Amino acid sequence: MVSPAIALAFLPFLITLLIRYRHYLVLLYRAVLLGWLQDRLTGVPREQRAFQYVLTHAIPGDPHHILHTFDQWSYHCEHLSCVGPLKGKIVERLLCERAPRTVLELGTYCGYGTVLMAAAMPAGARLYTVEPNPQHASVAEKVIRLAGFDEQTVS
C-alpha cells in the first residue's frame, strides 16, 4: 500500500507533465476520444458526418470551395486526417511544375487529396486512386463527384 505522503509527492510532477504536454492531450481528445464518442452516440461514422457537412455547405462543382469546407469541418467540428491547405499548396505547386499525365494515389480516405490533385492536374491528365476501406471509398466517390470530376479524370 502506498502512503498518502508518497502519493502527494508525485502530484506536482503529474501537474507539470499535464501542463507541459497539454497540446498532446487536447489533440488526443479531439482526434481520438471525441470522434470515438460521437461515432458511438450517433451511429454515423466521422467521414459520413464530414460528407454531410460538405454536402450542406459547399458549392457543388467547385473543388476549391469543397476543400475549404473540409478544412472548416476539420478546424471547427472534428479532426479529419487530410492534407490541409498548407501542404496542399505544396502538392498543387509540384503538380503544376511537373504536369504529370498520370497520377496514382494510394489511400483516398475522404477524397480531399484526390480533389486537390485533380484540380491541380493539367487538362487531359488522369488520376487513379485506391482506397481499401469500402466505407471511406463510398464517401470519397461522392466527394469526387460533388467536386465535378468524372470517370475520365478520376477513377
From TrEMBL:
Q: Name one GO cellular component term.
A: endoplasmic reticulum
EC number(s)? 2.1.1.6
Task: Kindly give the InterPro entries that the UniProt entry links to this protein.
Answer: SAM-dependent_MTases_sf (IPR029063), SAM_O-MeTrfase (IPR002935)
Q: What is its main location?
A: endoplasmic reticulum
Query: Which keywords appear in this protein's UniProt record, sorted alphabetically?
Result: Catecholamine metabolism, Endoplasmic reticulum, Hearing, Methyltransferase, Neurotransmitter degradation, S-adenosyl-L-methionine, Transferase
The molecular function terms of the Gene Ontology recorded here are: catechol O-methyltransferase activity
Q: Which PROSITE patterns match?
A: SAM_OMT_I
**Compartment(s):** Endoplasmic reticulum
Q: Which GO terms describe its biological process?
A: catecholamine catabolic process; developmental process; dopamine metabolic process; methylation; sensory perception of sound
Class in the EC hierarchy, top level: transferase
| PANTHER family, per the entry | CATECHOL O-METHYLTRANSFERASE 1-RELATED, TRANSMEMBRANE O-METHYLTRANSFERASE
Query: Could you say which protein family the record assigns here?
Result: Belongs to the class I-like SAM-binding methyltransferase superfamily. Cation-dependent O-methyltransferase family.
- The protein, known as: catechol O-methyltransferase
